[in-house]
Amino acid sequence: MTTKGHKLGRKQHMHGLTGIPEFDVLRVMIRRCKADPHYAGLSVHQPWIDDPRLFVLHVGHRPSPKHEIDRIDNSKGYEPGNVRWSTSKDQKLNRGNTIWLEAHGKKMCLMDWARELKLDPKTIRHRLYVLKQSPEEALTPGKRPSGWKAREQRAQMEV
Predict the structure, then answer these.
(1) What per-residue confidence (pLDDT) applies to 147?
(2) Region for residue 83 given its phi and psi (left: phi exceeds 0; alpha: psi -120 to 50; beta: otherwise)
(3) CB-facing half-sphere around the CA of 59: CA atoms within 13 A
(4) Residues 11, 17, 20, 22: what is their CA dihedral angle, to the nearest 10 degrees?
(5) Is 111 exposed, middle or buried (0-12, 13-18, 19+ CB in 10 A)?
(6) Would the pTM of this model clear 0.90, i.e. be above it?
(7) What's the half-sphere exposure (Cβ side, CA atoms, 13 Å) at 98?
(8) Is the pLDDT of residue 37 over 50?
């Protein structure tokens, strides 16, 4: 038996969840793992596919329409202990290319540091990767790199 044409794996249940956000999220997870090459090798916990109520029991109801399901460890699939509801901002922080910096007694991602200190993120990246400054130096507003004054004076003399 299927629910409005939704096949739920080997066993198909009348589960009463069709149309609720959590069931739609589960369907998208299953489709993503089967069809999206970015998710190759990842899977959805089979008992959740067999009985979507188990998925809802594990993750709970979606806190708000802004929340999506997120994998805590992106190298693992959608399985118990590795999924949570999170906002788009939280998900962006869970990406492998997020730059985390610890300075001034706090740990934040580069973009949050830039917002807090009113610095251009490109400036911070330049200070870290080109000028090889420490996070403390790179995150100091108004801090000029060593040799900056001499370069500025040479540039003015050329004008």
Answers:
(1) 57
(2) beta
(3) 28
(4) -50
(5) middle
(6) no
(7) 17
(8) yes
